[in-house]
Design a protein that fits this description.
The protein is built from ten helices and 15 strands. With 372 residues, the protein is of the alpha/beta class. It has two domains: 176 residues, Rossmann fold, CATH 3.40.50; 182 residues, RecF/RecN/SMC, N-terminal domain (Glutathione S-transferase Yfyf (Class Pi), Chain A, domain 2, Up-down Bundle). It starts with a strand and ends with a strand. Bound molecules: adenosine-5'-triphosphate (ATP). The site of adenosine-5'-triphosphate has 15 residues, from helix 1. It is found in: Cytoplasm. Keywords: ATP-binding, Cytoplasm, DNA damage, DNA repair, DNA replication, DNA-binding, Nucleotide-binding, SOS response. Its main location: cytoplasm.
């Protein structure tokens, strides 16, 4: 899959910009605060209908303007698809093939992207939210059903938490209504848990192979899903539901006192072991970085395995954060295979030597010029 054209209109510090990309590696070079990350953000937003940097859509609209628009042309093995997204006071509008998409779940998945930024090196050591977001964003792009289940789960969770909060504060207390919400939540939760377990198993296979290559065969990487119940191999949905029901029964009184849902996929995490020891606790900084890199590259391979297409890779100022060995592995893994967008103040020595014919764009104060 690739993004062949991108046009920005009043997006961040871009007035009107039209760009043509190559299938291989595209590089955005420029000094600080010129608009390099804004370009990556626009590609990310075109793919996922949201920014990776802000929850406030208004931030994306150029100051003093009323509407921001991104249009792009996607090429994959089925042909070409125009996509567009715009943000205005009326809200967000997403179009595929010039047709309005009322639900974002029908829009997301047209363009698959994987973003790798310096913060992702914290994937291993960071808070559980970082890893949950990693699962949800990458997995959601390759599995529409999962995307729908996640948004359904969030909605029911919000209702259930609101009801529990009111309960804790002495408001309405209808046990039957609460039971209905609990049942609905457990139903979706069990599907999410099974999907995440499957996803992590597949990701482990890919990431372990890459980790071994980067660490020269000496280390084995394994992933361990942490959820409210213990998920056995080949578990069925009704078994997960039953196990979850027991957890909810156990938590019932506490939930009513605390006014919130204490267990479920919103509290999940996964642990990354290297040679059977939790790399977040026992690993060196180098091992943690190798594991993070292996997980990201593993995702790329998994997306290819699941969708038949490689995603587009966005590397936001990440090369200079990696040592020569890890940079080499990263570039060799993607070259000639994955369309990639790199931002950097300047290319690293390793990148200059390894990248064959990059297309270079010079970014200056919201203007982009192709380097001849
Ligand atoms: N909504 C907006 N309207 C106009 N300009 C904006 C808007 N949002 C951000 N900017 C401008 O965009 C610039 C930042 O661009 P960007 O984050 O892409 O920097 P960068 O080139 O990636 O720099 P660095 O290498 O430091 O990360 C800043 O000058 C900021 O003032």
């Amino acid at each position: 899959m690739e993004l062949s054209e991108l046009s920005l209109s009043h997006f961040r510090n871009y007035d009107q910009t039209d760009l043509h990309f190559q299938s291989g590696i595209n590089v955005f070079l420029g000094e600080n605060a010129q608009g390099k990350t804004n370009l990556l953000e626009s590609i990310y937003a075109l793919a996922l209908a949201r920014s990776h940097r802000t929850k406030t859509d208004k931030d994306l609209i150029q100051w003093g303007q009323k509407e921001a628009k991104i249009t792009g042309r996607i090429k994959n093995r089925f042909g070409q698809t125009p996509l567009s997204l715009s943000w205005s006071a009326k809200g967000k509008q997403a179009r595929v093939n010039h047709l309005d998409q009322s639900r974002l779940s029908t829009y997301i998945g047209q363009l698959n992207v994987i973003l790798f930024a310096p913060e992702d090196l914290d994937l291993v050591k960071g808070a559980p939210t970082v890893r949950r977001r990693f699962i949800d964003i990458e997995f959601g792009q390759m599995n529409k059903l999962y995307l729908q289940q996640s948004s359904q789960y969030k909605k029911i969770l919000k209702d259930r938490n609101a009801y529990l909060k009111a309960w804790a504060q002495g408001g309405q207390r209808d046990q039957i209504f609460l039971d209905v919400l609990t049942e609905q939540l457990i139903d979706v939760a069990s599907q999410i848990i099974l999907a995440r377990q499957k996803f992590l198993n597949k990701l482990e296979a890919q990431a372990n192979q890459i980790h071994q290559e980067v660490a020269s065969q000496k280390e084995v990487l394994t992933l361990h899903y942490q959820t409210a119940i213990s998920v056995e191999e080949d578990m069925q949905k009704d078994q997960v539901q039953e196990a979850l029901s027991l957890v909810f029964e156990k938590n019932a009184d506490r939930e009513k006192r605390q006014g919130t849902t204490l267990a479920g996929p919103h509290r999940d995490d996964f642990i990354i072991d290297v040679n059977q020891a939790n790399v977040a606790v026992f690993g060196s900084q180098g091992q943690q970085r190798t594991a993070a890199l292996a997980l990201k590259l593993g995702e790329i391979e998994l997306m290819h395995q699941e969708t038949g297409e490689y995603p587009v890779l966005l590397l936001d100022d990440v090369l200079s954060e990696l040592d020569a060995n890890r940079q080499t592995h990263l570039l060799m893994a993607i070259q000639d295979k994955v369309q990639t967008f790199i931002t950097a103040p300047s290319l690293t020595e390793v990148a200059r030597q390894l990248i064959k014919e990059p297309k270079i764009f010079i970014v200056k104060a919201g203007h982009v010029q192709v380097e001849e």
